[in-house]
Amino acid sequence: MTAIGVRGRSPRVDRADRVLRTRSDALRGAAVAVVLIGVIGSVLLARAWESTVTRQRDERLDRTAASRTVTISSALANYENALQAARSLWLASGSVSRQEFSIFARSLDLTDRYPGLQGIGWRTVVTDDQTDEFVARTRKDGTPGFIITPPGRRPVYYVTLYSYPRLPFSDPLGADARANPGILASLEQARATGKTTVSNQTTLPGDAILPAAERPVGFELFMPVYDVERPTPAQRRSRFLGWASGQFRAGDFLTDALTDVQRTTGVELHDEVVGGSPIASSPPGFRAQGPDVREERFTFGGRSFVLRYAPMPGNPILTERTVPATLVLAMGIGALYREVGRLARTDGLTGVANRRAWDEELPRELARSARSRQPVCVALLDLDHFKAYNDEHGHQAGDRLLKTAAAAWEGRLRKTD
Questions:
Q1: Which terminus of the chain is less hemmed in, N or C, by CB atoms within 10 Å?
Q2: How far apart are CA 87 and CA 79, in angstroms?
Q3: Long-range contacts made by residues 58-64, C-beta under 8 angstroms, separation at least 24?
Q4: Contact 234, 194 (CB under 8 A)
């Protein structure tokens, strides 16, 4: 028999196998490490992205609330313009007849130029010893049945002499405001300070026929008028002529103020002096609820109002640029790069385009204008004495002012601007 021996493997081959196995294990370990780093990085990126989206949404909700607050408060300022026109009428002539007032009031075109303002009027002060002559003169001026109401002798009367339109919203002619505590204090405040005031909540005459629970909340505006342009405090009684007045319902005012605003955010109007339930809302019946409610305040005519906003269903603020974390894992650096690019062209405080965006857009618009032969308008807006405001009220107040101003300007622009 022949014995067959089995030779062992070469030591060189064994070393090669061990090297290959070691390298393979190292590669697998490196691959696992790369995957883990990628997953961890993606998770961190996703979290950062969600944080950015949340911050952007909050900033846009804040800007929307600030912009609409400016729009609403500006509507009241517009009402004051109508009273300012009435004031100018008296300053120009000293005395105004009923026919002159009617011609003037019709020329204001309240429905189109001052939507929500139900009527304007004129009140004057009459002392008890002047009543007989005052009533006789007023009857002769075109109101034969004129009397002062309610009846009774009083030392002084604050009488409604003119109103337009006469029905159904204006006070009855001859009504003595001193018999109405809801507006008396505001009349006297306006006379004493020389400033426009807003009355307490009241019911407009045309709404008095409704059941008490159904009567909409109304207010009156009072602008004091003197026979000099800028009376001193000592002259505000001796040179006083009367009050230009205007009436409005809270609900009509709020709805008309927001007529041209996109209905994606609802708002409640609260009277801060009274508190409690909203006195009006737009759209009617809306209630501000949920985690995205924003609250703003403004003061007009010595009265403070609170506005509570909340997005309505379908509001793009709630969904635009909101990307789930799982999708961010796939989007990765590309999405972050685009977002960084957007942030580079946007002012972080106000959300408006910054200098970099201007440098990119203006040459493009000028080229388009030259090609289409259409004009281009560039407006420069400046806040006078902003540094003084910052120094007096602090940088946080200055930031709020900048946000509000930017929101107000942005609200006046079209999407194509």
A1: N
A2: 13
A3: 59/351, 60/317, 60/351, 61/292, 61/294, 61/309, 61/311, 61/317, 62/294, 62/403, 63/350, 63/351, 63/403, 63/406, 63/407, 63/410, 64/265, 64/294, 64/309, 64/317, 64/407
A4: no
pLDDT in tens, 18-42: 544 555 555 555 555 555 665 565 5
Distance CA 181, CA 216 (A): 18
**Contact predicate 50/325, CB 8 Å:** yes
Q: Helix crossing, 11-93 with 98-108: angle to 10°?
A: 160
- The two three-digit tokens of residue 251, written as one number: 């609900």
The CA-based angle 144-150-156, given to 5 degrees, is: 95
Q: Please tell me the pTM assigned to this model.
A: 0.67
Letter for the amino acid at 70?
Answer: V
Between CA 49 and CA 330 the distance in angstroms is 13
Query: Which one, of 267, 292, 293, lies nearest residue 278 by Cα?
Result: 267
Looking up tokens 């961890």 gives 40
C-beta atoms surrounding 74 within 10 Å? 14
* Tokens standing for residue 349: 């405080």
Q: What CA–CA distance (Å, rounded) separates 307 from 300?
A: 13
Q: Exposure pattern of 186-205 as b/e (b: 16+ CB <10 Å)? A: bbbbbbeebebbbbbebebb
Let me know: does 209 contact 168? Beta carbons within 8 Å.
no
Collapsed DSSP state (helix, strand, coil) of residue 149: strand
What 195-199 contacts at long range (C-beta under 8 Å, 24+ apart), as own/partner pairs, is 195/224, 195/301, 195/302, 196/80, 196/83, 196/221, 196/222, 196/223, 196/224, 196/301, 197/221, 197/222, 197/301, 197/302, 197/303, 198/76, 198/222, 198/300, 198/301, 198/302, 198/303
Within 13 Å, how many C-alpha atoms sit on residue 212's CB side?
0
- Cβ atoms 220, 184 nearer than 8 A: no
241, two tokens: 């002529």
CA 218 to chain centre: 20
Please state whether the peptide bond connecting residue 165 to the residue before it is cis, i.e. omega within 30 degrees of 0: yes
Which candidate, 334, 332, 272, places its Cα nearest to that of 303?
272
Q: How confident is the model at residue 1 (pLDDT cuts 50, 70, 90)?
A: very low
Residues 48, 57: Cα–Cα separation, whole Å = 14
